[in-house]
Queue: 2 jobs
Job 1
Amino acid sequence: MRLRSLFLLLTAAMLSAKLGLAQQILPIDLPLQFTDSNSRYCEWEGLGFNNIPNYLCTCNNLDAAKTTQTNTLWSAGSLGLNLSGAGIDKLGLWDGGRARTSHAEFGGRIVVMDSGTTLSAHTTAVAGNLMAAGINPNAKGMSFATQLKNWNFTNDNAEIIAAAPDLFLSNHSYATTAAFTNIGGLLYWYGDSSLHPTRDWKFGYYDNRSRIWDSVMHANPYYLMVKASGNDRGNGVAPGTLHRYWNGSAWALSTTTRDTVGPYDCISTFGNAKNILCVGAINAMPNGLIGNINTLDFSTWGPTDDGRIKPDLVASSGNILSVGSATDTAYAGLGGTSIAAPNVTGSLLLLQQYYHQLKGRYLFNATLKALAIHSARRCKIDFLGPDYSCGWGIPNFKLAAQIMSDSIHNSIQEITLLNQDSFAYFVYATPADTLTSTLVWTDPKGITSLPAYNDTTLKLVNDLDMRLYSLTDSLVAMPFILNPNNPSLPATTGDNFRDNVEQIKQSNLTSGWYKIKVKHKGNLLNNQAQKFALIVSGANTLSALPVSYLNISAKQISVKEIQLSWSTVQETNNHSFEVLHGTQADKLETLGMVKGKGNSNRLHQYSYIYRNEKGLGGTQYFQLLQKDFDGKTNPSKTISLTIKEPLSIQAVMPNPFSDELTLYYNSGQSTVQLKLYNLSGKLLLEADLPASTNGAYPLDLQNLERGMYLILLHHPSSGEFIGFKIVKI
């Protein structure tokens, strides 16, 4: 439908509601809706800044491949979890119309929330990627047995505000008109020449919809919105091409050269919201992710105007089969970022389902976002950290599920940080470990500035900071940061004052205890508490056994015993592990055998205790010889352990205590350093304990407030730490 001389009759009633203008009829040739040359469906939204017409447009379609390993969560998947989204009525979809609800793939599981909504091929395909049943296996949705609520994006903000308390996730594969758009063979430029003559100011801009969406998620801590990043990168025309531009009151013809969009700073308006999960597109890689991975040439890149990292993640795209809208059995091949987003959205719903099975509760939106980012595989394997093209990388939902189920090597924390407070988390790491910690919080809404080209005003409200320290409070590592002034540079580390996502990844640590500390700058908004999520992987928590993830480690238990530990995440035809030992690295003998798991893609931990009644001394060497069922063997690396003087705790009595307690310990021939911390990591007491093989040390703690505390004993001669908790009542 096209309008001649604005047959839409934008009268005073409509204009005053949008712009406060006097009654008038504008001589503008405008469509109410159109499909452009890239198959995007666009719908009139109103007049925006400087009276330029605004439209909401779908991104292009695709079905998700199995690149994100979502299929491993299904009933036939390698993890054997049988996740489908069944029974969870917490998924929403806003798009440019309604899905074909009668399609065989949907089985009556879609409820259209807007009456009179037009059937949309785009919406049908997106819904298919979210929750198609898989009658055609190639079109199976991520949460293939869940329910879906489907809204038209015409009145999305009001509907989102109303629906948010009853949703876990929603998908938004649409964007505002930006840069060049071809409508029926006529070329339009949707920038504003008064703000910039050749570049569209909307790229990187934090708009009113961004502010509203951030506010909704902050008010509804279980609700996460997933947004397609858009397909505008590379959008441009040859110099001198005739096109229409908005001169402030009408479309006018021009041959001015407008820049090609990108490569950086080309995510428009509400794709730049802080709390959403913004998703770009890569080629499908169903056989595994290999080498450096680039986004598809249309997939938009950050940074935002204030330098934040967007997109957050990327997922697979291309001409992939999805549900079609022509008939109840139709399928269609589609492509773009639009279905990269629901690939992630539907998969995240499965993680919520799995976490509820494990813990009996659901994850906060910040935690779900943190989990997707924490488990992602970065696009540029030559560099650590995020980049402005792929964000944090390609989600790995198999790994995300394993992180949720393996509490020995992974910790998922949901913490409330009070104003002027801090939080500390203790881990024990070895040189073989790669310690990774990810911090995410749902930030209060930012301030929307007046339209401007590249306004760098920071949108972060509560600036939380994460640091890695030694127990002596020496700074060990800071989070990744990117440089928006030179966006092609790889990530470095430093103070991240832009993003509400921070990550630290550190290898080659000296064996010992470390402290991950979270605090905030200045005051939190209105001095109110801020919830955050912290995920830690790759080293052991205070209560965990000293097993290095995917590595072999040896720990001295006593002067007579050593515990050998190892773990696997994949086993093929594995019969057993033969444990070898010796006091010389080149002369090892068999100690025993531990049975393997055969074929498995799940995480498994193993341990073996070596005991010598005569006592151990010097350096001990160990190796594993993995044996297949067909007799083939595969040796591991050889590891060593030098026997040290023992440090042990016989008892702490009483615990809980009221005023005093006594510590019974064994330190051999060396003194022991004692330190007492509160759970915020503040050091409250230090003391030197005398050398003893059966010592008793009384502690007068009557001045402490009631609560839980951490005592760490440090053995100077061996470097060993022992930590335990005490409770004052």
Note: The two ends are 74 Å apart (CA to CA).
Job 2
Amino acid sequence: MERRVLLAFLLSLLVLLVYQSLVVPPAAPPADTARTGVATPTESAPAGVADPPLSRDGAAVATAPAATPEANPQNEIAPLVADTEPRDIVVESENVHAVFRNRGASPVHWELKGDLDQETGRRIDLVPQELPPDELPPFSLVFEDPELTVRAAQALYRPNTTVVSLADRSETLGFEFSDSSGFRVNKEYEFEPAGRGYLVRFRASAFLGDMRLSPVIEWGPALGGVESSSTGMAYREGPRGLIFGRLLGAEGLEEEGITRPTSSDVAARPSYRGQIGFVGVDNHYFVAVALAGRQEAEVTFRHVPLPPLTPDGPSRELMAFGLQLPGDGIDLPFFIGPKEFETLELVDPALIRSIDFGWLSWLVVPLHRSLTWIHEYVANWGWAIIILTVLVNIIIFPLRHKSVVSMRKMQEVQPEMKAIQERYAHLKTTDPEKQKMNQEIMALYRDRGVNPASGCLPMLLTFPILFAFFSLLRSAVEIRGEPWVGWITDLSLEDPLYITPIIMGASMVLQQKMTPTQADPMQQKIMMLMPVVFTFMFVWAPSGLVLYWLTSNVIGILQTVVTNRVIGPPKTRTVRPPAERRVNPPAERRVKKSGRAGGPGRKAKAQ
């Protein structure tokens, strides 16, 4: 039974690793750049829009439109409140370097100071670059009238400052624009230090004369910072939709939960409505979401396939989304940054759900908290992984000890069990006499105090911890770019010299030889292939995961040595031939038989 459980576990893990290595995201549907009722910035800007004269303080002042022959009404539209020339406004915080452009009043860069691209060494920019001209930047406003959308995207908004430096208090960057048609737009970005620079509250209002407009917040292709290192177990999720809340289904509001629409999902269902907690786009390590606060809202996703930035680079499969909120005004916080556990929890505890820990999140979360707590003392994520692995193995030591003791007992009764099986080997499986074999084996277990399940259950209880560690080390952005010692400079990437995977494979071979087994020689040879397979697959695994597995193997070897010394060497039992057992039955069976015979005369005769 232990052999079957171990084999089932190894095969299950093998399937998991092969899935991570071979399964690729579904093919992207054909690009559909047409958006009904939404104009794009590439459409011609209204003719006749000229820069207004300036007052002494540099502000634009209203001027009457010049009369021209055969004037078109659209030619008479002139800016009233606007900037005089294109300019960039820089926002600096502890962790973010952002650049806003006054044309459209939207960010064109959102660079993370503490996160570098693992290939180029440059800062991760969460606003994708080199986009087609018809794609809108983040925080764009889309109106029912396409012409208003174009004007809002092409207008030179007047900023209230040229530089924003975020320290220990909130800072606000404001933009305003109006023209002679009565079209007015105000945008305001309030940066909050509580979010370490990743949190910004976006406010916007738009009017056409006395009528207040209700635009859609359009976030163009997202998310930047996509990494191409997606081989084997180091697979990186690309940009995909992210919704947390109660969505409206066929039978009403569904249960609150996470939905992650991929490109194929968006092709079948682009729009989602319901009570939304947060919504946006994420990739493996980063996220850009609007914190809607569980209010009624509607979001529409759009798959945006783009060519690679370099001729030999990977293609970019991005995702855009538009958010429609109830009411006329827009006042909404956005989080744009890495999926750091503590930062997400500080901004909104529900935002932790954006980290894809899988079905074992109930176990991964406390492991993550423990790993972070240890890191505060050792200041090295590699040593934190080793220390946490040691602590976890100390906790499960009784389970492993009981499993080894049970397998030792099973190993000791193996010769007797094989002798029983050989006596019934000539019978077919359907023969009723074959049941006696199972009865004798169970009687043997009972006489020797062996419980087959006691070897399986402790081992099964350790499996969730193993998979939880796998999910934790695969998804935690905290170990991304973090070194351990020497040649391992990034725990989220594979070992560049393949030293730790080779040592890990050798430790698996040694541990397997030390573990008691009831397998026959042929099965043992087959099982010895598993370390080879695991070594080959862990060559491309994140170094942090290999470090955990290696540490766990070393602790397992030490524990086996301790257990073997405690319980002593295995007891060898000599199995007599079947004929001898029939002539000289064991003493216990003779005593039981004489006791069942009844009177003292029979006992004396037996003696």
Note: The first helix runs from residue 2 to 22.
